[in-house]
Design goal:
Layout (H helix, E strand, L loop, with lengths): L8 H11 L6 E3 L6 H14 L1 E6 L7 H11 L3 E6 L2 E5 L17
Parallel strand pairs: 1-2
Antiparallel strand pairs: 2-4, 3-4
Length: 106
C-alpha cells in the first residue's frame, strides 16, 4: 500500500473499531499544527501506526482542517474525526502491526 492510497470503507471501519480503545496521545492547542506537533505525530505513528489526536478548543483552525493538515504533513490517513478527536493511521514499512481483515492469511 503506497503512503497515500485511499482506505476502503472496510479498512476505515476496521481502524475505527481499533481506535475505540485508544486514548488521545497528542494534543493540538493554540499553536495549531506546529513543527513540534508534526514531529510528535510522526514519532507516534512510527511506533503505533494508529493514533488518536485531540484538537483543543483553542486550536486556530477548524477541527476538520486541523486533522486534515496534520494527516497531510505526516503522510497519514485521516480515518475519522469524532467531536474534537481525530484518528490517524500510517502503515509502517517494516513489520506493520495493523492487519486488515482482507489481508489476514496472505
Amino acid at each position: 500500500m503506497g503512503p497515500m492510497r485511499d482506505l476502503t470503507g472496510k479498512q476505515r471501519r476496521h481502524l475505527r473499531a481499533l481506535g475505540q480503545r485508544l486514548t488521545a496521545t497528542l494534543h493540538v492547542g493554540h499553536e495549531g499544527v506546529s513543527d513540534a506537533v508534526v514531529a510528535q505525530a510522526d514519532a507516534q505513528l512510527e511506533a503505533h501506526e494508529l493514533i488518536k489526536v485531540r484538537v483543543g478548543d483553542n486550536a486556530p483552525a477548524d477541527r476538520h482542517e486541523t486533522a486534515e493538515d496534520l494527516a497531510a504533513r505526516t503522510r497519514a490517513h485521516l480515518a475519522q474525526v469524532i467531536g474534537r478527536t481525530a484518528l490517524l493511521y500510517r502503515r509502517r514499512r517494516d513489520e506493520p502491526m495493523v492487519v486488515f481483515p482482507s489481508e489476514a492469511g496472505r
